[in-house]
Predict the 3D structure of the following.
Amino acid sequence: MKIMSFFKLKLNSLSNKQLLTNENEGLKNENLNLQKQGFQQAQEMGAEIKHLTDELESLKTQLTEQQSQAQLKLVETDVESELLLLQLHQTQEELEILFLQEQEAQKQLQDLKNHNQILLTEKHTLTNEVSDKHQLTQN
């Protein structure tokens, strides 16, 4: 019976050892599969990082170009604004000159009208005097 127990124990021990060996092999295979998955994921992530890095560089280049274009446009707009302001000042000066000339012309016109009225009044007076003298001489 002791021998039987010993064999049973030995058999159980061998059986347990076989189970542990099988489990160890399974864990090794699982570990290997996980390593392969990890390596594959690392490669995919590396490719994604490379893609994103390339895209970032492209966007940086585009941004730099857009900034340069915006700066150029700003300079052009400043130059145009200065020219427009200069033209506005010149136009304003011309309008002031025309306004003063118009005022002077209006004053001269009024003076001529006043002088014309005086002449008409004098003409009327002289006409009346001549008419009166003519009537006196006929009488």
Remarks:
- Helices lie at 2-138.
- DSSP finds one helix and no strands in the chain.
- The radius of gyration is 58 Å.
